[in-house]
Amino acid sequence: xxxxxxxxxxxxxxxxxxxxxxxxxxxxxxxxxxxxxxxxxxxxxxxxxxxxxxxxxxxxxxxxxxxxxx
Length: 70
Description:
Elements: H1 12-17, E1 33-35, E2 42-46, H2 56-68
Antiparallel strand pairs: 1-2
């Protein structure tokens, strides 16, 4: 539609502008990466990130399990 503003880049700045805030401790800029607590593979999060850290595969599987457990 003409005159509407569509955000397509998906950057954190775009989300901040749209009322969403970025998750604390987002993806790391570079190594060292934290190991996944389930499979021990490297994640996209920094090694000093607090809390449970999952790799993208385990994160997706956990989301599937919790979505179907309702």
